[in-house]
Amino acid sequence: MSVIKREANNLSFRQCSLTQYSLFRSLQVNHLSTMLLTLLLLPAIRRTTASTWAPRIILLTSEVHYWADLPERTAPNILTTLNNSTAWGTANRYRVTKLFNVLFVQELARRLARSPLLGDRSIVVSSVNPGLTNTNIGVGSLSFIVKKLLFGRSAERSAITSVYVATAPEVAKLTPYGRYYSNCMAEEAADLTLGVEGEELAGRLW
């Protein structure tokens, strides 16, 4: 297995949308399920490191992670606090899950870099912003549908950065891994992900 590309998006405009596990649907679909499946596939992709090709893990996030508001980041258990919050609005709920995607990628990259199981081999871990795409996400909001029709990209155009990160040789040379890509360029992620505080937040979220 050479490339894992994971994308799961749920943007629910219902007042309260919970899964059978009593989790906010957007939190489970956008973050927890994506994180779990990625970790379950790690043994398979780790075996690929024996080849000359550096395998890659790519998680799709969104530029909206820049605007995520996370006062719960100081709580003893961030996920439990968020899931029990009645004030967690739909828009910010989605932004926070996209922030969690970026933090997960950064923390996974750090842990893989320290793993003795990889030796001198590498797994390239990245998060990718495909941009606003004209898909069926957010069908419950007329304003969101109009925004997609006016400014949304086609699925083909939105896939360009993912393909670049999955195949470009220079991506494997740009270390440390865990970088955020948009429009085929590595960019600085949100302030909440940066520095010692960002690393601590990612570790606690893990």
From TrEMBL:
Write out the entry's keywords from A to Z. Oxidoreductase
UniProt cross-references to InterPro entries, sorted A to Z: NAD(P)-bd_dom_sf
The name this protein carries in UniProt is Uncharacterized protein
Report if keyword Transcription is assigned. Answer: no
Q: What is the lineage of its organism?
A: Eukaryota, Fungi, Fungi incertae sedis, Mucoromycota, Mucoromycotina
Please report which protein family the annotation says this sequence is part of.
Belongs to the short-chain dehydrogenases/reductases (SDR) family.
Which GO terms label this protein's molecular function in UniProt? oxidoreductase activity
